[in-house]
């Protein structure tokens, strides 16, 4: 069996780190990216790369066909990773803003997964690794759209796991807290694209949100480098019994416990104070 893996969103952050490291460790990595300039950058670094834009079904189908062509119709693993965060109070988000967020973060992932699953079923093994978030099980103010997409990924993954019982295909969720990447930089662009900050009743809070998003380097305590996610990806790929969920960073462990033991009301009181302004 050739250890092949298809990864989305490799231009920066976690996808870039995981693609480079797995390549170095002998995997055949298909390191895809949304933009051609990112593909060029990845090719220059010696990776196999081509375009895959999760907003675009044709792009997803072409990328999948390319992989199939390269591997004689086999694929060991898919790492669904490419995504963005759209900050903003839910009442400020248009239908279009929410739709775009779901197109990339959820529907693109599932469309790609549904192309890959028959291949894995036929070959009799496979690994689907979903880069979810601590925000896939706790909510923070001004993260509603992103929260909703990660909750959706958790729901789809939990159900796929049940439907794949006995298939030798494993679905693992990775749930990172804060990780160093371009995530905040990209979120600033999305806020500017989709939210009319000055017209919003939340404009004062947005100034604080922007201050946090524009902070250079770690903006919150317990931020880890993307290698922390890589370690869990490697376990999900190489363990005989991959975990259904991998926590990454202290905040994920903490909120995992708090979610289990606190009432919704008490947890709300705690969460309402965080996320929006630091
Ligand atoms: N950083 C964190 O604190 C954190 C915490 C928990 C979970 N995560 C998750 O980790 C994953 C990777 O994020 P990151 O932190 O590494 O942030 P990042 O540096 O912003 O990387 C995000 C990647 O997704 C790509 N992407 C965006 N829209 C896409 C589309 N339509 N099609 C294909 N790719 C697209 C970006 O490409 P472009 O460069 O072209 O925009 C980029 O390569 C995401 O699923 C995120 O939700 C991150």
Automatic annotation (TrEMBL):
The keyword Heme does not apply. It comes from Nitrosomonas marina. GO terms for molecular function: oxidoreductase activity. SUPFAM superfamilies: NAD(P)-binding Rossmann-fold domains. It comes from the Bacteria. Keywords: Oxidoreductase. CDD domains: 17beta-HSD-like_SDR_c. Belongs to the short-chain dehydrogenases/reductases (SDR) family. PANTHER family: NADPH-DEPENDENT 1-ACYLDIHYDROXYACETONE PHOSPHATE REDUCTASE (PTHR44169). Coiled coil: none annotated. This is Short-chain dehydrogenase. InterPro entries: NAD(P)-bd_dom_sf (IPR036291), Sc_DH/Rdtase_CS (IPR020904), SDR_fam (IPR002347).
């Amino acid at each position: 069996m050739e250890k092949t893996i298809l990864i989305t969103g490799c231009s920066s952050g976690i996808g870039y780190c995981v693609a480079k490291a797995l390549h170095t460790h002998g995997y055949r990595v298909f390191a895809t990216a949304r933009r051609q300039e990112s593909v060029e950058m990845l090719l220059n670094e010696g990776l196999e790369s081509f375009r895959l834009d999760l907003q675009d079904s044709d792009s997803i189908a072409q990328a999948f066909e390319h992989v199939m062509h390269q591997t004689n119709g086999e694929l060991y693993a898919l790492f669904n990773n490419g995504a963005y965060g759209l900050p903003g109070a839910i009442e400020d988000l248009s239908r279009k803003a929410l739709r775009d967020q779901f197109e990339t973060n959820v529907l693109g992932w599932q469309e790609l997964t549904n192309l890959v699953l028959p291949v894995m079923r036929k070959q009799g093994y496979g690994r689907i690794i979903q880069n979810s978030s601590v925000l896939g099980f706790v909510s923070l103010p001004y993260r509603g759209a992103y929260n909703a997409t990660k909750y959706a990924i958790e729901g789809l993954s939990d159900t796929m796991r049940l439907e794949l019982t006995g298939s030798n295909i494993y679905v693992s969720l990775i749930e990172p807290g804060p990780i160093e990447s371009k995530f905040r930089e990209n979120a600033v662009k999305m806020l500017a694209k989709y939210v009319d900050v000055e017209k919003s009743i939340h404009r004062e809070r947005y100034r604080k949100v922007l201050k946090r998003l524009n902070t250079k380097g770690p903006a919150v305590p317990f931020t880890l480098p993307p290698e922390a996610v890589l370690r869990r990806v490697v376990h999900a790929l190489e363990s005989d019994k991959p975990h259904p969920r991998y926590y990454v960073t202290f905040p994920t462990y903490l909120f995992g416990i708090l979610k289990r033991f606190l009432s919704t009301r008490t947890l709300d009181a705690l969460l309402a104070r965080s996320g929006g302004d630091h």
